[in-house]
Design goal:
The complex is a heterodimer of chains A (139) and B (485). With 139 residues, chain A is α+β, with helices and mostly antiparallel strands. Chain A is built from two helices and eight strands, in the order ββαβαβββββ. In chain A, β7 and β8 form a beta hairpin. With 485 residues, chain B is of the alpha+beta class. Chain B is built from 15 helices and 19 strands. Chain B is globular and about 60 Å long. Chain B starts with 8 loop residues before the first strand and ends with a strand. The relative contact order of chain B is 0.17. Chains A and B meet through α2 and β6 of A and α7, α9 and α12 of B.
Chain lengths: 139, 485
C-alpha cells in the first residue's frame, strides 16, 4: 500500500492517500501535502510541534487538519516529516508533527500550497477495509 | 465525474448562451464570450457547468458570465463574472472572488528600448531575481509591525506611498486609487495577520511573475502615445496578489458563509458556492475583510514596483524618473465591487464578482484618473510565460454587456503534472532563451509547469474580447526577461 499519490487537476494539484486506519489516512494525507512543498527525504525530524484541529464531521475535519498544517508552514515555515495522530474522532484531531523549519540551502522547494479546497473531496472506507481520501490543493 | 454536456446556443460569433433550463435552479441564463476555437478548449473541463451553477445564486442579475479564458475553479469558474442585487437578497460569495483576493497586475513603461536593454538583460534579470523577494519561504525585506499591517489593510497602496515607496501619481494610476473604502482590519483573524505579516513586498510563486517586456505590436497608436508606448519600448509587468493573508481571509469566510447558508436557508448545487446575503452581517463582514485584503495586495504591488525601480536604477545607473519608469495602470482580477448599473431602466447598486476577470470601464467614467478619462480605463492582460501580454482599453459596451468586465489572461489548459511531464527531457529555460527570453525561477519545476503550452492562446482570448466589443486592444508586449517564485 502506497501512503499517497499525486493526482492531476487543471489549475492545481491533489493528493490521494491511503491508510489501514483513519489515523494512518490522516497522517499519510499530511505527508502527501508536505511532499508537494519539499521532497520528504530532504526533511529531518529535528523538532516536534503539537497540532489540534476541530470540525463538524470527518471530511471537514480532514480539511481542517490540513489547513492547520498550511498555516503552520506559512507562518513558521515548519515542514512536517512524520505525524503521530494521538487522538482522532469525527470532530477533533490531535497530533505530534516531527519536522524542521525550511532551510533553503538544503530544501528544494517545489510548490506553495495556498489553500486546502473542498473540491472533489472524498474520505471513505473500501469494502476490503482500506481507507482512502482525496483532497485538491490550491497552489 | 463525467457530466452531460451543457447546452449552448450561439448568439453571435463571440457570444453563446446557456439557456435557463439547462439545469434546474438557474435564475438567469449563462453568457459565454468565446470563439468556436476557444470553445473547444473550454469544453475540456467542467467550466460551463460551473457557469450554470453560478446562475443559481440568489439575487443574480441578467446572466452568469464567462470570459474567453474561462476554466474550472472552486465553485465559481476562473474567468467568471456574476453581479447580484443586494435588494433582491443578492449574495456575496468568497468563491466568486477567489483565494488570492486582488490578485492583479500592473504595467510600467520606460524610456528604454530593446536594443538599449539587451546588453544588460542577463544582469538585469539576475538582479531582479536577487532583489525581489519571491518564491516559497521568501519573506518581505521590510518588517512591518502589527499596527503598520493594520494601516496597510486600511489604506493600501496610499499608505505605502506615504512611507516613501512611490509617488502620488502611482496611486492615481491604480484601480480604486489603491485603496478600497469600507475596509475593516478588525474583520481579519489573527491567523490572517500572522500569514500576512512577513509577506508584504513579496512576489509569491505559482503563476505570479515579474516580467521585462518589449512592445511588439501597436493596435491603437493614439492611445499608445498617451501611455508613452511605441514599438520596441521596454515595459515592466508585475503579477501578484494578497499572498497568505488573502488565502486565509478566503478560508475564514468560506467557513463563515457556509454557516450563513444554513442560517438564511440558501441551498446550492456546490458547497464551494457558499455565500451570504450582501446585506447580512456575514456578507458585510466578508466585504470589509475582502476590501482589507485587496488593500494589502495593492500595497504589495506598490512595494514590488518600488523594488523593481530600484533594480533598474542600479543596473542602468540613472534614477527611475530619468528612465521614465512611470506606472501606466494597475488592475485587480480577483475581487468583488459594489458598482452601479442600469438594470431594466433602473439604476441599481450591484455586487459584481470578478474572479479571473478585469474591470474595463469606458471613456468618461468618473472612476478613471483625469489623464485617462478621455480614453478609457487601461486593462492589463498578463500572458503566460513565454507568450504575449496585452494592454487594452475598456469600452462602453462592457457596461451594457458584461458589467464592466473583460478577460484577465490566458487560463490553463494543461494540468501542472501534465505540463511537467511534457517538459521532461526538455529544458524549458533553454527553449525560452532560444526565443530570446531570459527566465529565472525558484522552485524545482517552476518553469516547466508554466510552459506556454499549458495555457490557452492569449492572442485568441484577447481577439475575442476585442471583437465582442467589451474592450479594445491598444498594444501587445512580448517578454524578454522573467522572474518567478
Amino acid at each position: 500500500m502506497i501512503p499517497y499519490e499525486v493526482i492531476e487537476h487543471t489549475a492545481d494539484i491533489g493528493i490521494r492517500s491511503y491508510g489501514r486506519t483513519r489515523e494512518e489516512l490522516f497522517a499519510h494525507m499530511a505527508q502527501g501535502m508536505f511532499s508537494l512543498i519539499v521532497p520528504p527525504e530532504q526533511v529531518q525530524p529535528r523538532s516536534t510541534v503539537s497540532i489540534t484541529a476541530t470540525a463538524d464531521g470527518w471530511d471537514r475535519l480532514l480539511v481542517a487538519w490540513l489547513r492547520e498544517l498550511v498555516v503552520l508552514f506559512d507562518t513558521r515555515h515548519f515542514l512536517g516529516r512524520s505525524f503521530q495522530i494521538q487522538r482522532l474522532d469525527s470532530t477533533r484531531v490531535e497530533a505530534a508533527v516531527q519536522g524542521e523549519p525550511l532551510d533553503l540551502s538544503r530544501h528544494e522547494v517545489d510548490k506553495e500550497v495556498k489553500a486546502v479546497t473542498y473540491c472533489d473531496l472524498s474520505l471513505q472506507q473500501n469494502p476490503d477495509g482500506l481507507w482512502t481520501a482525496q483532497v485538491i490543493f490550491d497552489i | 465525474m463525467e457530466t452531460a454536456a451543457v447546452p449552448l446556443k450561439k448568439l453571435d460569433d463571440y457570444r453563446w448562451e446557456i439557456p435557463m433550463d439547462a439545469k434546474p435552479g438557474m435564475r438567469v441564463p449563462g453568457l459565454v464570450f468565446a470563439s468556436e476555437r476557444l470553445l473547444q478548449d473550454i469544453l475540456k473541463d467542467k467550466a460551463l457547468e460551473q457557469v450554470a451553477n453560478v446562475a443559481m445564486l440568489p439575487g443574480i442579475v441578467k446572466a452568469s458570465m464567462a470570459m474567453p479564458d474561462i476554466h474550472w475553479g472552486y465553485g465559481f469558474p476562473v474567468g467568471g463574472v456574476a453581479a447580484t442585487d443586494p435588494e433582491q437578497g443578492g449574495v456575496i460569495s468568497p468563491g466568486g472572488v477567489g483565494y488570492d483576493i486582488n490578485c492583479g497586475v500592473r504595467l510600467l513603461r520606460t524610456k528604454l528600448t530593446e536594443p538599449q536593454v539587451r546588453p544588460f538583460l542577463k544582469t538585469l534579470v539576475a538582479q531582479l531575481f536577487r532583489d525581489i523577494p519571491c518564491g516559497v519561504g521568501a519573506g518581505g525585506d521590510i518588517k512591518f509591525t502589527k499596527e503598520q499591517e493594520r494601516r496597510i489593510l486600511a489604506d493600501g497602496a496610499q499608505w505605502i506611498v506615504k512611507q516613501g515607496y512611490g509617488v502620488p501619481q502611482d496611486v492615481e494610476h491604480t484601480e480604486a486609487r489603491g485603496r478600497l473604502d469600507g475596509a475593516d482590519p478588525d474583520k481579519l483573524s489573527d491567523r490572517a495577520y500572522e500569514r500576512g505579516k512577513g509577506q508584504v513586498g513579496t512576489l509569491g510563486s505559482g503563476n505570479h511573475f515579474l516580467e521585462v517586456q518589449v512592445v511588439d505590436r501597436i493596435f491603437d497608436p493614439a492611445a499608445a502615445q498617451v501611455f508613452g508606448l511605441s514599438e520596441g519600448a521596454v515595459t515592466v509587468m508585475i503579477h501578484s496578489g494578497s499572498r497568505g493573508l488573502g488565502y486565509q481571509v478566503c478560508d475564514d469566510y468560506l467557513e463563515v458563509t457556509a454557516k450563513a447558508c444554513a442560517k438564511y436557508g440558501i441551498s446550492l448545487p456546490d458547497r464551494q458556492l457558499v455565500c451570504a446575503p450582501v446585506k447580512s452581517p456575514e456578507g458585510q463582514d466578508y466585504l470589509a475583510a475582502m476590501r482589507s485584503a485587496s488593500n494589502y495586495a495593492w500595497a504589495n504591488r506598490q512595494l514590488l514596483m518600488h523594488r523593481a525601480r530600484e533594480v533598474f536604477e542600479r543596473v542602468f545607473k540613472q534614477s527611475w524618473q530619468a528612465l521614465g519608469m512611470s506606472l501606466i495602470y494597475d488592475v485587480a482580477h480577483n475581487i468583488a465591487k459594489m458598482e452601479k448599473y442600469d438594470v431594466n431602466g433602473k439604476e441599481k447598486l450591484l455586487c459584481v464578482h470578478r474572479k479571473g476577470a478585469t474591470r474595463a470601464f469606458p471613456a468618461g467614467h468618473p472612476e478613471l484618473p483625469e489623464d485617462y478619462r478621455h480614453l478609457g480605463q487601461p486593462v492589463i492582460i498578463p500572458g503566460d510565460m513565454g507568450r504575449n501580454s496585452y494592454l487594452l482599453l475598456g469600452s462602453a459596451q462592457s457596461l451594457t454587456d458584461s458589467f464592466g468586465s473583460t478577460c484577465h489572461g490566458a487560463g490553463r489548459v494543461m494540468s501542472r503534472t501534465a505540463a511537467i511531464r511534457s517538459a521532461r527531457g526538455r529544458s524549458i529555460r533553454q527553449e525560452l532563451e532560444d526565443k530570446g527570453i531570459i527566465a529565472m525561477a525558484r522552485g524545482r519545476t517552476g518553469l516547466d509547469e508554466e510552459q506556454p503550452a499549458a495555457y490557452k492562446d492569449v492572442n485568441e482570448v484577447v481577439a475575442v474580447v476585442d471583437h465582442a466589443g467589451i474592450s479594445k486592444r491598444v498594444c501587445r508586449m512580448k517578454p524578454i526577461g522573467v522572474i518567478k517564485g
